[in-house]
């Protein structure tokens, strides 16, 4: 019996019968975010032209060529995973900082003080590769049980090549974001995220998905996996080591902040004498850790702000210590 029979009614109400949900490239931030909140995923068709993927492919071809295949079935023994995209590709940087995606990520993760780049990776599934195990991306944090109503990620998979079921398009289990962390699914329970080059699949960290089987004899399915996470968790790809300092110094400030050269929240990520991490790249950066960001975080709806109450009380009373 298919595990889809165990989905709750709310999940079944959103289960497409034959295909996943798509939106046009003109979709608004609100439309895309609502689709993510409701379904846990959405495909945006042709968000960039195919020519942009030509640029990415040209810039990354030498690195992909030299990347070794994965060492186990989960990573894929016929699959290559090529990272450090910010250091290696200008065209990939433009995808990382795509305004539509950043607007959606900022909205979807607005319950946190900041959000950040989590990883960059080309996933190239070679001919004859079997399907990957269906999984949730939240497992990256040592299988920590994040609350069901707390979203820690906003993820993307860009179609760098054609993205068909036969080539191994990512497979998604619709409605599974409403379930817990211990569900088991097979490839038969999922639907392929078929899309044209330049399109992008957005999905959260709770939805079950996995790379599909590449049943072709001569085609490689290439996807650009760029993911974002709330600012207080550790990044899956170490952005500070993946991008050498001499390269980081050439990047614009907004991209640097996205990479993590900013405070992840009011008390996470400072350097030296509680200084802004941007000061490592920009010596003239003058920001320091202040109580103002702490007050802003404490005032956010749902925050556990007992510490801030104590600080405020102490300040009102003139201080005691």
Structural overview:
This protein has 321 residues and is an alpha+beta fold. It has helices spanning 9-12, 29-39, 50-66, 85-88, 90-96, 99-108, 239-242, 245-248, 253-259, 291-299, 306-316; strands at 22-23, 41-44, 79-82, 115-125, 153-159, 171-172, 191-192, 200-204, 209-210, 221-230. The strands form 2 sheets. It has a 7-stranded mixed β-sheet, with helices on one face. A 3-stranded antiparallel β-sheet has the order 7-6-9, with no helix packed on it. The longest helix is centred in the N-terminal third of the chain and has 17 residues, at 50-66. The radius of gyration is 21 Å and the shape is globular. The N and C termini lie far apart (65 Å). Mean pLDDT is 90; it is low at 1-6 and 314-321.
Topology (elements, then pairings):
Blueprint: H1 9-12, E1 22-23, H2 29-39, E2 41-44, H3 50-66, E3 79-82, H4 85-88, H5 90-96, H6 99-108, E4 115-125, E5 153-159, E6 171-172, E7 191-192, E8 200-204, E9 209-210, E10 221-230, H7 239-242, H8 245-248, H9 253-259, H10 291-299, H11 306-316
Parallel strand pairs: 1-2
Antiparallel strand pairs: 2-8, 3-4, 4-10, 5-8, 5-10, 6-7, 6-9
Helix pairs in contact: 2-6
Radius of gyration: 21 Å
Low-confidence stretches: 1-6, 314-321
Please state the structural category.
alpha+beta
Helix content: 25-40%
The proportion of strand residues reads: 15-25%
> What general form does the structure show?
globular
Count of alpha and pi helical runs? 11
- What order do the strands of the largest sheet run in, or round the barrel if closed? 1-2-8-5-10-4-3
- Gap between N and C termini: 65 Å
- What's the mean pLDDT score? 90
Largest sheet: 7 strands, mixed
* SSE topology string: HEHEHEHHHEEEEEEEHHHHH
